[in-house]
Amino acid sequence: MAEILKVLKGTxxxxxxxxxxxxxVEKKADEVFSxxxxxxxxxPIIEVTELFSRGVGDTTDIVNxxxxxxxxxxxxxxxxxxxxxxxxxxxxxxxxxxxxxxxKLWYHGPMFRYERPQAGRQRQFHQVGxxxxxxxxxxxxxxxxxxxxxxxxxxxxNDLEVEINSLGCPKCREEFKxxxxxxxxxxxxxxxxxxQNRYEKNPLRLLDCKVVSCQEIFERxxxxxxxxxxxxCDECAEHYTExxxxxxxxxxxxxxxxxxxxxLDYYNRTVFEIKSNNLGSQNAVAGGxxxxxxxxxxxxxxxxxxxxxxxxxxxxxxxxxxEPKKLDGYxxxxxxxxxxxxxxELRHHGLRVEIDLTNKKFTKQLEKxxxxxxxxxxxxxxxxxxHQISIKNLEKGTQIxxxxxxxxxxxxx
Length: 413
Description:
Elements: H1 19-35, E1 39-40, E2 46-48, H2 49-57, H3 61-66, E3 68-72, E4 75-79, H4 84-93, E5 103-112, E6 124-133, H5 138-154, E7 160-166, H6 170-184, H7 193-201, H8 212-218, H9 221-227, H10 234-249, E8 254-256, E9 268-276, E10 284-290, H11 294-297, E11 305-311, H12 312-318, E12 327-332, H13 336-348, E13 353-355, H14 362-372, E14 373-378, H15 381-386, E15 388-393, E16 399-403
Parallel strand pairs: 1-5, 7-8, 12-13, 12-14
Antiparallel strand pairs: 2-4, 3-4, 5-6, 6-11, 7-9, 9-10, 10-11, 14-15, 15-16
């Protein structure tokens, strides 16, 4: 016997009994995002590697450690590790800058990162997210955060906490980086290897470290003083203050987290995360922020932008399980040709119907119907001769016989 081949580590099949949950999340995304004027976009899952090294940043763990990259026809190709860079590439390539601002796009689909599989995180995982282009005012920040919150509420998730921070602009952020490096220098040898590498390349990322020993160092008073200093310039501070006013007026509950920096190089000014208390230490279900320089960085005209992404596996892990949808009907008959014809009549009217393809005994067919369908359509010799159908409500146990022409009118669907 041939060896049984198994799914790759870090990937999972989405089975028929689970797919209703995915459809539920995708449908809610379409409903809520459409209410805010976002239109769906679908970009390829493969892009040129340069898109991510330039866009996501070559100092990030994603680019340095986690991308699936391969060579093909003298070109370096990468399975997308996130979708913002791809959406920005599409925005530029397809001339969307000529559209009236804001340009609002949303997406869902698979992403790929080589990392240790854990609860709610896989090597092939799925994200749903939005991107908004063309608005520099904090109204865009507020609307994107509100969109994320209301989408999560539409799924039935209410045990949530919104965290916000401002990273400032490139100018004031450089001043903060200099201060942070200065105060951390005496502890450099005590930091983890990743933090030691980030110290020179991207010191802000140190604050995102999850290693306990590093977090304890960051709690030291002199480091906390720098972290909580008002380093952002007047213009960035005004932007941040206005955002908080909008969130207050919209009754969005939030906390300010000075350690919140997000993991990608392209963020500036507003960053945010939405967390759930039901996920343990890895409790973020959504994250995003502004990336006002990314469009220009990837070859487009300078364009303010903001967005967020959510891991669908994590979202689904927080939702109560749904019972698989039952068929509308199952045709119970030993007259296979007539059952085929009647099944097609019902499908033509939009019903989800199956028939027995192996001509099992009547009782076996009825037993199968009770497990998979709401109604059993019984098509025996009498029903065929009289052009009738017997309909059994499998939930209530009641049964009636009607003319086939009136069959659908008698169903409570």
